[in-house]
Amino acid sequence: MLEIVNLHASIDNKVILNGINLKINLGEVHAIMGPNGSGKSTLSNVIAGHDGYDIISGDILFDGDSVLDFPPEKRAHLGLFLSFQYPVEIPGITVSNFIRTALNEIRKAKGEESLGASPMLKLMREKMKVLEMDKGFLSRSLNEGFSGGEKKRNEIFQMAMLEPKMAILDETDSGLDIDALRVVANGVNALRSDRNAFIVITHYQRLLDYIIPDFVHVLFNGKIVKSGGKELAIELEKRGYDWIKKEQK
Amino acid sequence: MKDRLSAFYWLNETQFAQASSEQITSQRRSAIEKFEIEGFPSVKDEEWKYTSLKKLITPDYLFPSPFVPLDQEEQIDFNDIKQFLVNDIDCYQVVFINGRYSSWLSETTHTNYDICTLGSAWKKYPEVVESYFNKLTKDDGPLVQLNTGLAWEGLYINVPKNIIVDKPIQVLYISTGDTPVFNQTRSLIILSEGSSAEIIERHHSLTNHETWTNAVDELHVGSNAKIHWVKLQHDSSNASLTQHSKIHQEKDSTAIVHTISTGGKLIRNNLDFSLTGKGAEARMFGLSLGSDRQLVDHHTRVDHIAPNCSSHEAYKGIYDESSRGVFNGKIYVHIDAQKTQAYQQNNNLILSEKATIDTKPQLEIFADDVKCTHGCTIGQLDEDALFYLRARGIRNKEAKALLMLAFANDAIADIQHPSLRVKLSQLIGRKLGVDMSNAL
User: Cα torsion for B13, B17, B20, B22, to the nearest 10°?
Assistant: First the structure.
């Protein structure tokens, strides 16, 4: 469904992605691991359509079609979702208003009717229950003053509401304590099906105890240098990244 | 133009004099004389440094005479003005057309309080008018003096002790006709001890010709009384407004003023509060959305005269294209005004390279036990926030509008009336070119 072909990208003339190849099918969970500065966040931003990067060469295909020329909103309409590593605080927009606007924009783009206030609220309540979120959450300003855990939970809540086909979780585990991690992972697992797919970007193997990946890739210097099953993550946890760095030299 | 205005006064002086007392007439005369000496303010005047009236005073305006009935051209009916009102609320309604009262479009009352027109009050309530008219405006600049000289029509409210006005008062000032027109409007609002009222005010032009309304308001807010005043400045692109609003507050009174400036050519607001009794509270909020070549100029002034008073000021500006904004916020804490709490914020977004904002906080503090905070910011839309919204499927234009609305939120949060909030979100949405009817 998502196919990344020999993708090269740079920011301020500095090449960050150096020929990424990745193919993801429906029903799969791919973990991307790698040391700091390996290009993990750049990859997720580029897939989501952030215009701060220059695509030097290569392609990103969604259901077979290139999305490189699509703005971020159009990619979201196709079913792409990025759970942000650092969700932005936006005072003055409530969580509920934000999600309602987003969901209805996506429905509109798909030619569906927009969802009225009460079915919307009902849906929100259902999803919040899974994520063990408090009702008061909806009327708070978007991410403003949220703890790290609340921010990540809010990202997963949005994902649950928007039901994307392809979700990228960018370091969703960072800043989470073990309980929050479990809740967030449960939220993700509840959404897993053969109609969607996930990329889980993380530093640590810990999250992968809860969200069990089908494939693990190691990103280093803007390239996928190693791929394997879930046991690769365990090996990385034990041995660190140094042996991979050495292998590359 | 100055000479024509002065001639207009002297020509009509007898008629002005016939309608009100000698005392008022002598005040008119001295005001006009002041105007004759000073003329229109120029950019050399510190108070008008960023706002030139040069172009505004050029057209060959008609000065509608309060003593001539509305002519055919000026006759309008409810359908012409419907869109400028908040329609689904029960309210009092006072409508003026080119500075003259329109009884058939208005709904006034004299039952528990007077909500009517100043034009009728000169004769009907001479003592009240004499005690309050021009009491707050004597020392103001030439535009106010001009208005005092020619003052005739505008909103008149007099609420007795401990009476709550049971529904909002909508006041609409219409400019119309087949020539450029220059209107003076004057309101006099008296809220006695413990009373309260809510006003929704709008100036609007129906013509494609240049119009200029020079408005002056005097509000007397008695002890423990409360006024909430919402000014919707969403006029057409050839319409200009200069407005001086003076609010005198006594002990424990509250005045809340919202100025929402989204349309019009040149808007100059002077909004002055004097807090003369202990525990008085002034709250003022502004939201300015500039586009094209619009100019929105806010000059505010709070005089903390009595101790234990508070003032809270939050003005937000968003300027696009070649629009300009001016903010000058003065806070004077007088020597006896101990325990003053004053808060002032002016935040601006600049959306284009040609848009400008000049912002100037001005605090003068003569008491030693006070808490004053102020700040101003000028910035652009947050690109990260924009990406965040777009990545959730919200289109660029809508995402920008949503961010602007979020930015503006502080300035409109205190407006509680649901219908008014809907109206407001429609106005803002129309300005930003998106459907915002569900956004507030």
Answer: 120
Query: How close does chain A come to B396, measured CA to CA in Å?
Result: 8
Where are the domains positioned within chain B?
2-387, 388-440
Question: Averaged over B137-155, what is the pLDDT?
Answer: 96
A73/B393 Cβ within 8 A: yes
For A96, the closest chain B residue by CA position comes to B439
CA distance B382 to chain A (A): 10
pLDDT digits (tens, 9 = 90+) for B311-355: 999 999 999 999 999 999 999 999 999 999 999 999 999 999 999
Order of strands, sheet of A54-62, starting from the edge strand that comes earlier in the sequence:
A14-24, A2-11, A54-62, A65-66
Predicted pLDDT at B243: 98
Minimal Cβ distance to A72: which of B391, B398, B402: B391
Assess whether pLDDT exceeds 80 at residue B45: yes
For A123, B303, B413, the CA distances from B310, given in Å and listed in that order, are 44, 10, 19
- B182 sits in which H/E element: strand B181-191
Q: Do B392 and A158 touch (CB under 8 A)?
A: yes
Structure tokens at B94: 């006072």
Out of B385, B396, B439, closest to residue A90 by CB: B385
Provide the mean pLDDT of chain A.
Answer: 92
A2-86+148-248 has which fold?
Answer: Rossmann fold (3.40.50)
Q: What share of residues in chain A are helix, strand, coil (percent, to 5)?
A: 40, 30, 30
**Residues paired with A9 in a beta bridge:** A17, A55
Q: Give the residue from A98, A95, A96 showing the smallest Cα distance to A145.
A: A95
pLDDT, tens digit, for every residue of A86-130? 999 999 888 998 999 999 999 999 999 999 989 999 999 999 998
φ, ψ at A240 (rounded to 5°) = 75, -170
Each residue of B380-395: pLDDT tens digit? Answer: 999 999 999 999 999 9
As a whole number, mean pLDDT of residues A28-50 equals 93
d(CA B183, CA B174): 9
Return the residue in B377, B381, B392 with the most chain A beta carbons within 10 A, the one to mutate for interface testing: B392
Residue with tokens 């060959």: B60
Nearest chain A Cα distance for residue B402, angstroms: 8
Chain B positions in Cβ-Cβ contact with residue A91 (cut-off 8 Å):
406, 409
The alpha-carbon gap from A245 to the nearest alpha carbon of chain B, in Å, equals: 32
**Closest Cα to residue B83, out of B210, B186, B170?**
B170
pLDDT of residue B80: 87
Closest residue, chain A, to B395 (C-alpha)? A73
Q: Which residue of B has its CA nearest to A106?
A: B393
Determine the 3-state secondary structure of B299 from DSSP.
Answer: strand
- The distance of A91 to chain B (nearest Cα, Å) reads 6
ipTM, interface predicted TM-score of the complex? 0.96
pLDDT at position B70 is: 82
The model's pLDDT over A185-226, given as tens digits with 9 standing for 90+, comes to 988 899 999 999 999 999 888 888 899 999 999 999 999 999
Residue A243, judged by CB atoms within 10 A of its CB (0-12, 13-18, 19+), counts as exposed
Angstrom distance (rounded) from CA A95 to CA B249: 39
Dihedral sign (CA A121, A126, A131, A135) = positive
Which residues of chain B neighbour A84 with C-beta distances below 8 Å? 388, 391
Smallest CA-to-CA distance from B138 within B34, B41, B42 is with B34
Considering CB atoms only, which of B394, B406, B438 is closest to A73?
Answer: B394
